[in-house]
Amino acid sequence: MEKVVLSTGNNEYNIIDSNDIVYLLGDGAYTYIHLLNKEKHITCKCLKVIEKELDSPWFFRINQNYLINIKHIKKYKISQPYTLTMMDGEVLLVSRRRKKMFKEKVRYMFKHI
């Protein structure tokens, strides 16, 4: 179980279990973290920095704004538009550029559980 420490910006920090993260949404210098229990956290770190900090094979960048936890994919669609549905019901778009890598990553990760 890997923990992630996220600054809220007002001298407070949230400690979150990375397994509880469904996906992260980057918005400039801020990132919104969506958890399994429907909680949402915001941190003043950009998505690229958090992606490096997580450093987990279970996280995948599906497009410029979203980093998802592959463990929490409910289903995905392989025709245009290429979408996936997360466990919380959110439907996200996989960029055309990352579609092939995404399919390979999902197949690999679930084959090795």
What does this protein structure show overall?
With 113 residues, this protein is an alpha+beta fold. The chain has one domain (3-111): LytTr DNA-binding domain (OB fold (Dihydrolipoamide Acetyltransferase, E2P), Beta Barrel), CATH 2.40.50.1020. It is 21% helix and 40% strand. The chain has two helices and ten strands. The chain has helices spanning 47-54, 96-111; strands at 3-7, 13-17, 21-27, 30-35, 40-43, 59-61, 66-69, 73-76, 83-86, 91-93. The strands form three sheets. A five-stranded antiparallel β-sheet has the order 5-4-3-7-6, with helices on both faces. A three-stranded antiparallel β-sheet has the order 8-9-10, with no helix packed on it. A hairpin with a 4-residue loop joins β6 (59-61) and β7 (66-69). The longest helix has 16 residues, at 96-111. The radius of gyration is 14 Å and the shape is globular. The mean pLDDT is 90.
Task: Give the topology, please.
Blueprint: E1 3-7, E2 13-17, E3 21-27, E4 30-35, E5 40-43, H1 47-54, E6 59-61, E7 66-69, E8 73-76, E9 83-86, E10 91-93, H2 96-111
Antiparallel strand pairs: 1-2, 3-4, 3-7, 4-5, 6-7, 8-9, 9-10
Q: What characteristics describe this protein?
A:
single chain, alpha+beta, OB fold (Dihydrolipoamide Acetyltransferase, E2P), five-stranded antiparallel sheet, 2 helices, 10 strands
